[in-house]
Amino acid sequence: MEAEGKLSVVIPCYNSEHSIRSVIEHNDSIFAGQGITDYEYILVNDCSKDKTSEVIRSMAGERKDITAIDLAKNSGQHAAIMAGFRHASGDYVITCEDDGQTNMEVIGKMFDKLNEGYDVVSTYWVDRGKRSLFRKIGSKINYIVSDALLPNASGAEVSIFFLARRFIIEEIIRYNQPYPFVTGLVMRSTANIATVECVQLPRQAGRSGYNFKKLFMLWLNSFTAFSIVPLRLSSFAGFITAIAGMIYAVVIIVRKIISQDIAAGWSSTTSIILIISGLILCALGIIGEYLGRIYMCINNTPQYVIKEITRSSADS
Q: Are 98 and 12 in contact (CB under 8 A)?
């Protein structure tokens, strides 16, 4: 492994008062073992409900290589990462989770891949440990949607744990609209992406900050921010339904001409109305989602609001 330049480690924090110190200490030991000496931590508190803010501010006061950022409200993991990116000064930037699940041991392999000429090196999860069926299904759907709708010429999966060169981060932070989706921004910035296999470690404390609502919003962000394919699919579905309706009307007329005894039924009519109405409402919902996001962008809705930034007294 060879890393010429400074490394920035961006960690979004949410309810991690009991784990963030051990995460930093564990990363320190890994960096020391792999010869990485020039690095910094950007800890972004996403308006946690516990004492995470006090813990990371205390750590920032103790060490000059830690910057603590407090957000004024909960903006989501991806917005917190964007805040960290904008305050990272390293030649290379890597993301890390606050619960100890990130296996930073693979950073040597990631730098080796980066030195082969890649712009971004992401991790491919070969084992994610024990997770609920809900999280497994949600992650699978998210990957399927991302592969189908997001630009990804390399075909490599991009997880939230990745290492990138500085120019990629500079391109990513140019995106200043609400509803950021970091992995989509990575794939939009470059096709020169490599992956390394990685095992996700057990969570040290607490529980996942993602509930159904947050996972659903992340899923929406994954395609409404970077693709108009859903709009095209709704148009295609409407066209197919119209064609099917015309064919069915011809069939009904022919059957009526051939057999005068066929009784007119309301069941088929009701079914057709329900199907077509459902498709119309679905298409209107998709259009409304896009219009709503355009409206929020026009209103300059911020990705996040920084309440306070804490650095060591020496830096200050």
A: yes
